[in-house]
Structure formats: C-alpha cells, structure tokens
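Q: Given only this backbone (120 positions), what sequence would you predict?
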C-alpha cells in the first residue's frame, strides 16, 4: 500500500512537471506582437484565448507557488492590453465626419406663435 502511494505521488509530480515544461516550450514559440503603425488600417485584435499557464511545480508544496492574485492580475493585464488595442483600432480606422460643400441656408418664420426653421 505504501509503495502504491509513493508511486502515485511520483507519477503526479512527473505529470505536473511535464505539463509545465510543455507550457514553457509553447510560450517560447509564441511571437511577440509588434507595436501598431500609425495611419494604417489594422486588423481587429483578437481577445486572449486562455488564462495564463501556471509554472512547472517541482514539488507538491503550495508554499512555492505564487498567490492567486498574481495570476488574476496577469489575466487582468492581458485583458487591459486587449482593450487598449481595440481602442487604438477604433481611433485609427474611424472615418472623419462628412464635410458639407457649403453652409446650409436656413430661414425661420413665425407661424401661429411657433418658430419654424427650414434649411436647404
């Protein structure tokens, strides 16, 4: 029974360290986004697809893991960066208001105590 429990603990330790190593490998493969170029049309930024991955845990001790707020803050920073990209996309790609070729000509008349204004 004791050998089975030791095997289970070692198996879980290897499993978590293997998953952590895969996350590190995947994170190294992701390209770093370049800053947006001004005055060019840009594609719509995509939201973050997943939550940040936990680092590999060499042991099952919870004393070595960062607290939950650390991961929550990282996720919030990613979301803030996404919102900032959305605003930049909006401002860079919005159309200027339509320009009228001339000032409109308006006339006002008093009819039965009401002012009626027509512009053309």
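A: Predicted residues:
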């Amino acid at each position: 029974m004791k050998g089975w429990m030791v095997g289970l603990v070692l198996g879980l330790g290897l499993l978590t360290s293997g998953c952590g190593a895969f996350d590190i490998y995947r994170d190294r493969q992701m390209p770093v986004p370049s800053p947006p170029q001004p005055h060019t049309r840009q594609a719509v930024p995509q939201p973050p697809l997943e939550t940040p991955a936990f680092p590999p845990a060499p042991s099952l001790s919870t004393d070595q893991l960062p607290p939950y707020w650390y991961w929550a803050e990282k996720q919030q920073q990613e979301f803030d960066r996404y919102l900032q990209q959305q605003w930049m996309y909006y401002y860079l790609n919005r159309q200027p208001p339509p320009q009228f070729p001339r000032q409109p000509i308006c006339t006002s008349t008093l009819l039965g105590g009401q002012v009626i204004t027509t512009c053309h």
